[in-house]
Design brief:
This protein is an alpha+beta fold and 738 residues long. The chain folds into 3 domains: 208 residues, Alpha-Beta Complex (Aldehyde Oxidoreductase, domain 3); 330 residues, Aldehyde oxidase/xanthine dehydrogenase, molybdopterin binding domain (Aldehyde Oxidoreductase, domain 4); 121 residues, Aldehyde Oxidoreductase, domain 4. Helices cover 30% and strands 25% of the residues. Helix 14 links the parallel strand 18 and strand 19. Helix 6 crosses helix 7 and helix 17 packs across helix 18. The structure holds ligand MTE, hypoxanthine and dioxothiomolybdenum(VI) ion. Hypoxanthine (HPA) binds next to helix 9.
Length: 738
């Protein structure tokens, strides 16, 4: 029997058909939004006459054409599908132009005249905060009594930490195709991580029940969080176009439009205060996060909660206060990005610890090691620390990297060279797994065993390159006792598995794999009972299935999974919001060219706790990819807006991504052995986001080298403003950064 070719092979061969590659349905119209040209203003008039005169196929839809609710916001209703009066960021959709070809649509857009009144623009989160431009109320988590504890500290340091945004740069830009079907229903082929979210948005905007909207999410050319919430608007606009015209409509953003119109990782600006005793044990930590939320609420509250949950990173901090402000600015709404607020929080904690190390004249790694969380400790949100493995990972990573020998070699190199300096840093990892919103922690599956013995598995999981299909294929094959090649993972569709959570929070396999497992086990149970009853002995799978079908046994099952044990009391900020934590440690070494400010990463040693690994190739790929993306955020990717809210880094020539040259260093990866995780499918652990944090070690490795250039690397003052671009490195080396 011909075995099914894993789709990843097809993907690597460049054979994946993304939505824009598919044959276009007859009568297709292309949609292109008319967007705001300034970051804040009020619309006075919109004149489409010149656009309409361009070609008979041109249509221009505005807010008045929306039959349902003109709203996309789920947490807060502050995001219209099409602006009716006030726009709040540059690149916000004001109208939708439809035309027979893409270039016609673009030409028509240029002919739409919008007049408006300009309003004041805020781009800085601290300024927004000072002016009371805050979304929801500030949120605070606390444990112990930091104020009292600071009085007992031998060392207290404080400072400001900034981290920049990050552009997703998924290979496939945002887009969707929509069609009217079956006399009134809408079918959307959507590039989304959240088919149900798109279904809900389309239904809401068109005034339809959800059962009139079917959303199909094929394999995505990457998403990284950028298509968790923000795919909805493009799908909903395409659906609006199809609904109004009755013709199929496709919207696909080109790269520049995608860069300028869509949201990215949240920039943060933070203030911290950290207190330690004379031995270097952390006694107290206070932090205020000013999250640049952008113009609409989007996922900012959930992202801020993940920041607050990760305020202490991997450390035991008995007295802690962490407060977060969602600051409303006139920039495109910032959104989910791998790590979902955790990297921002962890960077502040690490910066504080490095500052304390400077004040004490000790190596940061000594403070890191002294303060690691252990089993039996309590997180500041009241959850007991279970099966803590950070310390184990740190010990192994330091040993594996030959930390002491390396340190001596680096110090020797730095003594003998003036033009180049080397540095090294470690990053311990502790990352909570589960959606921070309790309700979202559920998954569904529908499994069919066809009567020839082949298997089709449907789940709510969207494949975006992360390998969730491969993992679920293995889970199903194991549960049914069939070769993997007999199992096909179907594309994700709302009519097959309903009410799904987005494939996000690294939980794709945890939730959907468990649901698939439940469905497979149900079918396996029926088959095994039938085997007994029918006296089939050890008849092969195909015979068993064929006979069972003959005997009218149901060969399909629905599976469902809801993560057990989760609870959270939002008013007390106490509970168990995570099913478990992922642990690990990175050691990264770097070398700086002191004359130019340029640098390279020399090596990465990673010890990562992935539980019982389901597929080593997938997990290795996720770890290496996340590390690359983390290094990009920490060092290179310089997202810039000017004071008028215009994106300056709006091409891939001005927005520097880690490239093959930058990433050409050895990654020595050890999966922590003997570490089964009882709280996820096949005792595995979620993999997608946690290793992104390792990139933070890259920041401190480069900083360590820069400090060596100033003389005493242990006492030279560092700076904590990420990304640490070569320009900033040069500013530091030349004293522009004091
Ligand atoms: N890997 C690839 N190749 N492409 C992606 O878009 N997204 C990341 C991560 N790894 C992503 C990826 C993000 S942000 C998340 S939350 C997870 O994959 C989602 O998939 P999972 O839950 O199945 O791990
Ligand atoms: N991660 C990703 N997406 C989410 C989360 C989360 O924790 N909570 C709500 N949406
Ligand atoms: Mo990932 S940021 O949770 O899509």
């Amino acid at each position: 029997m011909k075995s099914w070719n894993p789709e990843s092979v097809q993907n690597v061969l460049g054979r994946t058909k993304y939505i824009d590659d598919l044959p276009e349905p007859a009568g297709l119209l292309h949609g292109q939004p008319v967007v705001s040209k300034s970051a804040h203003g009020r619309m006075l008039s919109l004149d489409a006459s010149a656009a309409l005169a361009l070609h008979p196929s041109v249509r221009v839809l505005t807010a008045r054409d929306i039959p349902g609710e003109n709203e996309l916001g789920t947490a807060v209703p502050d995001e219209p599908l099409l602006v009716a009066d006030e726009w709040t960021y540059r690149g916000q959709s004001l109208a939708l132009v439809l035309a027979e070809t893409r270039s016609l649509a673009r030409r028509a857009v240029a002919l739409v005249k919008v007049e408006g009144e300009e309003l004041p623009v805020i781009t800085d989160p601290r300024e927004a905060h000072a002016k009371g431009m805050i979304i929801l109320s500030p949120r605070t988590m606390r444990m112990g009594d930091p104020e009292a504890a600071f009085k007992r500290c031998a060392v207290v340091v404080s400072g400001r930490v900034d981290s920049g945004g990050q552009e997703h740069v998924y290979l496939e830009t945002q887009g969707a195709t929509a069609q009217v079907r079956d006399g009134g229903g809408i079918f959307v082929l959507s590039g989304t991580q959240s088919p149900t979210g798109v279904q809900e948005a389309v239904a809401r905007n068109l005034g339809l029940p959800m059962n009139a909207v079917e959303v199909d999410a094929p394999r995505l050319g990457g998403a990284f969080g950028g298509k968790e919430d923000q795919a909805a608007s493009w799908s909903a606009l395409a659906a609006l176009g199809a609904f109004v015209t009755g013709r199929p409509v496709k919207i696909y953003l080109n790269r520049k439009d995608d860069l300028t119109f869509t949201g990215k990782r949240h920039p943060y600006s933070s203030d911290y205060k950290l207190g330690l005793d004379a031995e270097g044990r952390i006694l107290a930590f206070e932090v205020d996060y000013y999250q640049n939320s952008g113009a609409c609420t989007d996922l900012s509250p959930a992202i801020l909660s993940r920041t607050l949950f990760h305020a202490a990173s991997a450390y035991r901090i008995p007295n802690l206060r962490a407060t977060g402000y969602m600051c409303r600015t006139n920039l495109p709404p910032f959104t989910a990005f791998r790590g979902f607020g955790a990297p921002q929080g962890i960077f502040v904690m690490e910066a504080a610890l490095h500052k304390a190390a400077e004040a004490m004249g000790v190596d940061p790694v000594d403070l890191q090691r002294k303060n690691l969380l252990r089993t039996g400790d309590t997180f500041h949100y009241g959850m007991p620390v279970a099966e803590a493995r950070t310390e184990l990972c740190v010990d192994r990573a330091l040993a594996r990297s030959g930390w002491d020998r390396r340190r001596a070699e680096i110090d020797e190199f730095n003594r003998s060279r003036r033009d180049r300096k080397r540095g090294m840093a470690a990053l311990p990892l502790c990352f909570g797994i589960s959606f921070t919103k309790l309700m979202m922690n559920q998954g569904g599956a529908l499994v069919h065993v066809y009567r020839d013995g082949s298997v089709g598995v449907h789940t709510g999981a969207v494949e975006m390159g992360q390998g969730v299909n491969r993992k679920i294929q293995k889970v199903a094959a194991l549960a049914l006792g069939v070769p993997e090649s007999r199992v096909r993972i179907e594309r994700t569709r709302t009519a097959t598995v309903a009410n799904t959570s987005p494939t996000a929070a690294s939980t794709g396999t945890d939730l959907n794999g468990m649901a698939a497992l439940a469905a497979c086990e149900e079918i396996a149970k029926r088959l095994s009972a039938f085997r007994q009853d029918a006296g089939l002995g050890d008849a092969p799978w195909e015979t068993l299935v064929a006979k069972a079908h003959e005997a009218r046994i149901d060969l399909s099952a629905h599976g469902f999974y809801a993560t057990p044990g989760l609870f959270y009391d939002g008013s007390a900020e106490r509970g168990s919001p995570f099913a478990y934590h992922v642990y690990g440690c990175a050691v990264i070494t770097a070398e700086v060219d002191v004359v130019r400010g340029t640098y390279r990463i020399d090596s990465a040693t990673l010890v990562h706790d992935a539980g019982n690994v389901i597929d080593e190739v997938v997990d290795r790929g996720q770890i290496e990819g996340a590390l690359a993306q983390g290094l990009g955020w920490a060092l290179l990717e310089d997202l810039r807006y000017d004071r008028t809210g215009k994106l300056l880094s709006d091409t891939l020539s001005t927005y520097k991504l880690p490239d093959a040259h930058f990433l050409d260093f050895p990654v020595d990866l050890e999966f922590l052995g003997n570490a089964p995780n009882p709280r996820a499918v096949l005792k595995s652990k979620a993999i997608g986001e946690p290793p992104l944090m390792y990139g933070i070690a890259g920041y401190f490795a480069v900083l360590d080298a820069l400090k060596a250039a100033r003389g005493d690397r242990l006492r030279a003052p560092g700076f904590h403003d990420l990304p640490l671009t070569p320009e900033k490195a040069l500013d530091y080396l030349t004293g522009v950064i004091p």
